[in-house]
Amino acid sequence: ACYGWKFVRKMKLESSEMDEPNPCGNGLLSSSSSSHIEVQNAHLDEMNNDILYHLGMERCGSSLEDRFGDVRVVVMSGTRLRAEQLANRLISAFKCQLPVGSTLCDLCDTGRYSIYKAAHVLTVSHGVGASSISVLLHEITKLLYYARAKNVRFIRLGTSGGVGCPPGSVVITREAVNSELNPWLMQTVLGKSIQRPSLSSDRLCNDLLNSARDLEGFEGVQVLLARTMCAEDFYEAQGRLDGAICEFSESEKMEFLQKAFDFGVRNIEMESLYFSAFCHKLNIPSAVICSTLLNRLEGDQVTDSPELIQGYIDRAIRVVVHFLKKDHEQAEKEESNRP
Questions:
Q1: Which of 1, 4, 84, 308 makes an SS bond possible with 22, Cβ 3.0 to 4.6 Å?
Q2: Which residues are in the Nucleoside phosphorylase domain (predicted)?
Q3: CB proximity list for 157: less than 8 A, separation 6 or greater
Q4: Is 112 labelled a binding residue?
């Protein structure tokens, strides 16, 4: 039996629910070669079991390959609501027919993260900041490693503060830099500092850029392929004047933001550096795409109406949905042409 809809949906029908076919098929990504997702930890193979604590899953006895072996894209966003909304939009874009009496449900029951599945795509929430996304990245990558998933790509879909670009711009991260504008992650492991480059996939970034150019109604939207500064927190590290602690002047703030702009930074957020460094380390093609909610050269607070803000957020979502729809159609075409 295909377990895709069984585990992705809360079935109200008690009989024969394990036998529901997955109407979206395998959802294989187009690729000239197949490669399993990798980890770099020999200790994992020595463990009898591996409990993915924050996801509420484990390696043994969970049918991970049946449930997640067909995953080819993981889209990560900050909130549960955004992950759920994206999954519903993908189901519609892929023209998936839900079994009668079924509904989308969260595969993660720990309350820490959320995981939804639409055909070959997982949409997951990662919380706020590097420490939160790091836990998810480790456990979702191990999950897909145990599931023997192939040709997996990771996308972070989020919001950010623009630097010299208007609210509602869409920034695709060419390179993530830290708060000192260096293109690497510094991580302390066993008391030692480790430097890891924070590179994105050129191909995936360009695919997203081309998808944005294809969209109707995007003619007046700035879509930029640029550097993203990843800060350690929302207030001080981003040069905000409105935090509970601020020990710099407005002129010092503007001097730094102008320096970042001159260096090619067009937005600021809090996850791209760890995300990009992690994926590059494990050879996972990755990209970060964010909408901007304000221009930091003009202020620190988001002042537009909730309706306008939602419109800004939707722009990056539309790009990702359009890209994944084309990718899904190409994969199905290649699958149907196989002997």
A1: 4
A2: 72-324
A3: 75, 76, 77, 82, 86, 289, 290, 316, 317, 320
A4: yes
From CA 117, how far away is CA 205, in angstroms rounded? 23
Is 174 flagged in the annotation as binding?
A: no
DSSP for 251-262? Answer: HHHHHHHHHHHH
Report whether 159 belongs to an annotated binding site.
yes
What is the number of other CB atoms lying within 10 angstroms of the CB of residue 282? 17
Burial letters for 256-281: b for 16+ Cβ neighbours within 10 Å, e otherwise?
bbeebbeebbbbbbbbbbbbbbbbbe
| Torsion on CA atoms 260, 262, 267, 273, rounded to nearest 10 | -60
Tell whether the model's pLDDT for residue 133 goes beyond 80.
Answer: yes
Q: Which DSSP state fits 51?
A: E
Residue 289 pLDDT > 50: yes
pLDDT at 156 over 60: yes
In whole angstroms, what is the distance from residue 141 CA to residue 152 CA?
Answer: 10
Chosen CATH of 159-304 out of 3.20.20.110, 3.30.420.40, 2.60.40.3500, 3.40.50.1580: 3.40.50.1580
Is the pTM higher than 0.85? yes
Q: Is 56 annotated as a binding residue?
A: no
Enter the DSSP assignment of 135: H
